[in-house]
Amino acid sequence: MFKRFMPLSPVTEKKPSDNLEGLLLKKYDELVAGKRIDYDPAQIVVLQHLQELLKHVVNDAHEASTSSFYRKSSRDLKSTKSVYIYGDVGRGKSMLMDLFFDNCPIHQKRRVHFHTFMHEVHDYSHRWRIDKKTDVLTALAHEINKNTRLLCFDEFHVIDVVNAVILDRLYSQLYKLGTVIVSTSNRHPDDLYQGGITPELFSAFIKLLKEKSNILKLSAEYDYRLNHPLTDDTFYITPNNEAARAQLESHFHRLTNNAPITPQSMVVFGHAIPLLAAHHSVALCSFQDLCSQPLGPSDYLKISTTYKTLILSDIPKLVPEKHDDAKRFSTLIDALYFHKVKLICSAEVAINELYNQDLNAFFLKRTVSRLIEMQSNQYWQE
């Protein structure tokens, strides 16, 4: 005789998420009490949405891990909407996402910088040789979903048509499989497309993103990165002159126990990136070599994961004629910031004068904000 199992009454059944009620607000209050962050009512609004999402993610993970014999037939594991948080720079988007991610108790989760993720997508596509009958993005979506039910992206922005097409197809598959995606961005989805000859390729992805995500605006008033006290040392040196170059070389010698300054290079995907010098975890480079050459996110990811300190010389004032250089520089700073690489640099002008207002590049506002934070005691201690 088989023992008969009686289902729990809906009234008495305890959900896994019941123990997490109010958890994110409690953790937020602890950060405020410890003077790690400032209280902001706009952040609380977004945090309440993330608390609700936390409940659904945990319950869905529990349902997915339960055998079909016990699983509720009416439960749709693919009904949980993703979340897209946007707002101006330095308002606490990444901090709130980290708070959510760190306190989500499921194991099948991942937090990754958007550039890193796209690098992995392209690398996977390049290596895909096993089953020619299977679409590579479908295969990749299943590979991701197998280990990741929650995927968190920092600094989401799409300015490349190819990536927009890839993400449209990949996201469609991930949503079907039940992967929940949390993203932070400086721009509303409608503003991701910045003009070009193929707007329809962007519009399909943007429509999908808006349909499958709750779009949350973080309307905090201040850029909190500007509140960090600066370090006692000067690691952003102006202007670009012989004295600045001497200071950078002095920093390199200090950090490497007087290693010689001799040209070197690092190879990424078969092409060489020139370095003025490198020793163990410290690299000395020029803006010209890193940002005025046709490099991309994969190159900057390699630099950020190879070195713990980057010494960068001769950053110019960014004007309209240097739009491509400015875009590469912004991507470089994003990678350094995400991987907590220490930056020592020389520049033509002060940080808040770095780019010309005639240069229509929204991403530089984030870059300037991050450069300021990267000079702070808190960043260097982290």
Characterization of the model:
The protein has 382 residues and is of the alpha/beta class. The protein has two domains: 16-66 and 76-217, Rossmann fold, CATH 3.40.50; 228-381, no CATH class. 43% of the residues lie in helices and 15% in strands. The protein has 13 helices and twelve strands. The chain has helices spanning 23-33, 41-65, 93-102, 114-127, 136-147, 161-177, 199-212, 242-256, 287-291, 297-306, 323-338, 363-373, 377-381; strands spanning 82-86, 109-113, 150-154, 180-185, 213-217, 236-237, 264-268, 271-275, 277-279, 282-286, 309-315, 342-347. Strand 11 (309-315), helix 11 (323-338) and strand 12 form a beta-alpha-beta unit. Residues 1-12 and 67-77 have low confidence and may be disordered.
Succession of helices and strands: HHEHEHHEHEHEEHEEEEHHEHEHH
The best one-word shape is: globular
Question: SS-based structural class?
Answer: alpha/beta
Level of helix content?
40-55%
What is the C-alpha radius of gyration, as a whole number of Å? Answer: 23 Å
The share of residues in extended strands comes to 15-25%
What's the CATH H-level homologous superfamily of the largest domain?
Answer: P-loop containing nucleotide triphosphate hydrolases
Named CATH topology of the largest domain: Rossmann fold
Largest sheet: number of strands, sense, barrel closure = 5 strands, parallel
Main CATH class of the largest domain: Alpha Beta
Mean pLDDT value: 83
What is the number of strand segments?
12
Please list the strands of the largest sheet in the order they lie side by side. Answer: 2-3-4-1-5
Q: Whole-Å distance between the termini?
A: 61 Å
CATH architecture of the largest domain: 3-Layer(aba) Sandwich
Whole-number count of domains: 2
Number of helices: 13
